Amino acid sequence: MVLALDSMRETDRIDSDLERRFLEKIEIGYRRLLTFEVPSEPGGFDWWGKAPANLFLSAYGLMEFLDLAEVTAVDPDLPRRIVRFLRSKQHEDGSWRPEGIKTGWSTNMAKGRAFFLTAYVAWGLARAGEPDAKAVAWLEAHADEADDPYGLALATLALGTSDPESDVATQLRERLAAMTAKDAHGVHWVPEGETGVGGRGTSAAIETTALAIPALLPETRHRRLAERAVERLAHWRDAKGRFGTTQSTILALKAFLAVESQQTPWTETVCEVLRGETVRATLPLTSTSTEPEYLDLGDEAPSALALADDARVQAVLARTTWRPWSEALPGGGRLTLDVAWPQETLSVGQIAGATARV
Q1: Is this prediction's pTM over 0.85?
Q2: How far is CA 151 from CA 92, 118, 200, 304, in A?
């Protein structure tokens, strides 16, 4: 919601009533987030608000509150409190290391987690206007040891945010660009292990790809690769607009906005849905639209989308099938439920009432 409000304000696509409702819900969420601060460790946050505070989550909270401050009032001491907590946990060599390493983890995996944790915390500090020279030096000294795209993307963001002219960040972008995976839908990045919030499998790939995109954008020669990766992200979106977990969805949306900020403003265009050479549907796309547009294509899937001019559009094809509820409910109890529909077949868009007898 914070991302949506910020984007709509930036593009002047929001009215006062919608903005008011957004701010009311954001304020509720902000107050709820404050309850996850650990009382005995001011500035430290945990999944349950209990000690010990989680370093990754605390850095995540720092960046989340910075995002919130862009759209609503945030206690100005809160980010400073989190920065103090994170600095208090920093090792003498400039790194942050995960506590409670799982039994059975290899030395290389432990090193990898220390690298991406240090990168993530350093990125948060830099975003807060508090770049840490010791952390930057540690990341630069250990950059050659990092071979996982998740850690490389975070380190690139940390170094690039701390110093936009960083030579090491430029080198990491080159390595990151060379580590893409490819499938039928395009280019992306796949981490070796789980992410900082425990993401695995597809969710981890979405998180890593969504972090690699803004990491690459500062270099003009990598922008087309970032745009292709955004196209791959779109294929992970489900019919309801989600990208797996909450974290992977948030990062994916941020990646979309990061790429959009580098592109020319939206223009009006027309999208034609084709089946063979036959135009099945025509959909005008306005420059002020803020909502997804839906088309019912019936039983036949489209073969192509044709766009006027040189426009580009992200599309999701989904199929929903309903079948009668015919399974008999178990009997013998004192409570029974029977649902009766007025007819068995409904056409698209038709509204039908049901009778439920309890």
Answers
A1: no
A2: 21, 9, 15, 37
